Amino acid sequence: MANKKPKQNKPKTGLARCLELASNKKGLVFLSAILSSLAAIASFVPYIAVYFIISSILKVYPNLELLDMSKVMNYGWIALAGIIANILLYFLAIFSSHMAAFGTLYELKLHFAEHITKIPLGYHLTIGSGRLRKIMDENIESIEGFIAHQFPDFVASVTAPIVMVIILLAIDWRFGIASLVGIVLAFVVQFSGFGSGAMKENMGKYQIALEDMNNASVEYVRGMPVVKAFNQTASSFARLEHAIKEYTEWVLKFSLGWQNYMPAFTTIINNIYLVIVPVGILLGANAQDYKSFTMTFIFYLLFVPAIAGILNKIMYISESFMQIDGNVARMDEIFNIPVLPQTTSPKKTQKDDVVFDNVSFTYTGKKEEMAIENVSFKANQGQITAIVGLSGGGKSTIANLISRFWDVTEGSVKIGGVDIRDISEKDLMNHVSFVFQDIFLFKQSILDNIRMGNPNATEEQVIEAAKAAQCHEFISKLPNGYKTVFGTKGIHLSGGERQRIAIARAIIKDSPIIVLDEATAFSDPENEYLIQKAFEKLMQNKTVIIIAHRLSTIRNADKIIVMEKGHLVEEGKHNELVAAGGRYSQMWNHYTEAVDWKISGKAV
Ligand SMILES: Nc1ncnc2c1ncn2[C@@H]1O[C@H](COP(=O)(O)OP(=O)(O)OP(=O)(O)O)[C@@H](O)[C@H]1O
Fold first, then answer.
1. Mean pLDDT (whole number) for 327-332
2. Chain segment 341-376, per-residue pLDDT in tens
3. Which of 396, 403, 390, 354 is nearest to 372 (CA)?
4. Are 193 and 257 spatial neighbours (Cβ–Cβ below 8 Å)?
5. Which end of the chain lies in a sparser environment, N or C, as judged by fewer CB atoms within 10 Å?
6. pTM higher than the cut 0.80
7. Are residues 373 and 305 in the same domain?
8. Ligand 1 pocket: which of 368, 397, 587 to mutate (most atoms within 8 A of CB)
């Protein structure tokens, strides 16, 4: 597969980039360009033929009995052949361009999908699946549309004016120049509007506002349950309303920007007669051969609608050029994300302890915005290491760095003494399992969803894991048991049930290192009890790193790490840390006070 990434840093125009993307289908693209040019040329044939018919009639007029009918008929056939050739050639051009476009779309989507699996996983969390879906479905699909439709039309719109100018000047250069005055004037008007900095800015802002409005609408609809639960309808709607207003403002600015140029352009293009007729009157007054003059005059009057048609087409093509520039840029933003480097000489790790060796990391690339700084600790093999701290302290960042969701900015993360950058991706993924709060289940059977942890697992092994994860009971009650497809109508799983399925997935994967993000809230004590039981089973004999939100669950951890504003401020066992009277001790006091407060009934 050809490389679909942009070959240079300098941004290319949408057209150049589309042609680069379709380079594997060069032959078809070239064929489409040729056929489209020929179709454009063929479209003029009927006009020429009609010109000769008029010419034949006028030569013998008023003695029409002298008219050579067979000659007239031949011109008629030529005109018809021109029309048919135009339709046929254009059809073949579009056919070839579609073949090229579908092939390109197929490769491009595959390549895009492959690329997003190679970029650091952390980007997926940052970019969001909605935006990636939009780029893949809408922006990339628009490239297919551009190659299939706009490209052949663009080629025709370049060929047609050239042929048109030749014909205009060849038949009678004086009428030709008169027509060209109108055409040039129309183009000057169009490009002074279209090419102006303000118009380009408006177009860019209009596209961004459109995207913002779409995002706000999706957020509004998706967040409706939360919005209603917290009675936030007005403020939430205010955000959507703001996005709609912003869009309206830019769409108006963009549309009003055309208010002078567009009518001027259309008026000139549709009224080239206004130039031709006075020129005709002037020339007619001095004509030597009146018949020949009339013939030429009629031809130009007939030809004018063709000019308007061609120029209108060019105008709409220029608009689609603006749009494709934006679509290609959005796609290339993703292609420009560097893939996570993979080692060419992978090392094997024999042990399963995790060491953070002076690790610093920044999401933004700016050193002054370090998410964690100079963090060093060891999570011993087979032991539980808990990470605690206030929100934004860097707990999730530490968890994400263990699976190379991102690469460290400084220092190193080691498993069994080997830098994780020297471990093959597959090996690393086999070594580490994640259980997040936000569980993603595929629209597949529950069996397959659990089996994702180990594709070779037998049905019995899946059931065993489900039992250990406390989900066998509720799965058995589903209409088709383990074969029930998640996401189908009427199949609903609670947050706790989904989390237990994720635990079953991790149990069946049986990797030696487990990174757990403990749920912040449990729906009910029954669920909490079941999840804790499932966790216990999952954690047996593993190296566990747990992001803890409630201190009660980690009192027995072998080691507790306290994070604050990206720094590791304390480390030790629960009793040691409480006795030390530092940050953890404060957190513990606050925690126990809160619990006592609840128990004594002061909580609402
Ligand atoms: N994707 C991201 N892009 C930029 N900055 C980020 C990103 N994720 C986290 N940060 C920043 O990094 C810092 C550490 O965040 P992190 O999520 O690791 O903290 P945390 O302790 O897990 O917080 P919480 O308990 O709220 O989940 C914060 O300042 C946060 O704003």
1. 85
2. 888 888 988 888 999 999 999 987 777 788 999 999
3. 396
4. yes
5. C
6. no
7. no
8. 397
